[in-house]
């Protein structure tokens, strides 16, 4: 039985498996791991660093999805000694509305209020689309 948090419910392992399957079919990612030992409540997708300028040593998504349709999607780009971070969240909190985005470069709190679909596919498409725009901007 997955661990349940009072504020968001239990991790939805079925949705996490579907998310992992979707990300595995994308050319963007060099590796997708469902519920790794270091993040057993998540799917972690490592971007292929060939999409980034040489200074980026790692870029990844870490996704949690709960049976309440709450979620957390964390994106990080790693550079020498620094990182560029943002998060898309839906969960009860005292800093924003239930749906919100913690903007880059440091995923600050409070973030910006946002609306999200209850369908994980729509949320994933939105996040990956926004990140595609960032990656494309590196090469313009």
Helix content: 10-25%
Count, helices? 2
Instruction: Note the run of SSEs as H and E.
Output: EEHEEEEEEEH
Low-confidence stretches: 1-5
| Class of secondary structure makeup | alpha+beta
Mean pLDDT: 93
Order of strands across the main sheet: 3-4-5-6-7-8-9
Give the domain tally. Answer: 1
Largest sheet: 7 strands, antiparallel
Radius of gyration: 15 Å
The rounded distance between the terminal residues' Cα atoms is: 48 Å
- Classify the beta-strand content into a percent band: 25-35%
Question: How do you describe this structure in short?
Answer:
With 140 residues, the chain is α+β, with helices and mostly antiparallel strands.
Strand and helix map with partners:
Blueprint: E1 4-5, E2 9-10, H1 13-24, E3 29-34, E4 43-47, E5 58-65, E6 71-79, E7 82-90, E8 99-102, E9 112-113, H2 120-138
């Amino acid at each position: 039985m997955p661990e349940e948090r009072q504020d968001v419910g239990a991790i939805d392992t079925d949705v996490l498996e579907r998310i992992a399957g979707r990300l595995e079919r994308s050319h963007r990612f060099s590796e997708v791991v469902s519920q790794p030992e270091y993040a057993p409540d998540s799917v972690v997708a490592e971007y292929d660093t060939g999409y980034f300028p040489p200074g980026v040593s790692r870029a990844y998504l870490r996704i949690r999805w709960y049976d309440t349709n709450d979620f957390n999607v964390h994106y990080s780009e790693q550079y020498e000694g620094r990182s560029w971070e943002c998060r898309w969240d839906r969960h009860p909190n005292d800093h924003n509305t239930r749906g919100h985005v913690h903007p880059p470069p440091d995923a600050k709190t409070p973030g910006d209020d946002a609306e999200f679909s209850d369908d994980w596919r729509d949320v994933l498409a939105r996040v990956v689309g926004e990140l595609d725009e960032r990656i494309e901007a590196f090469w313009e």
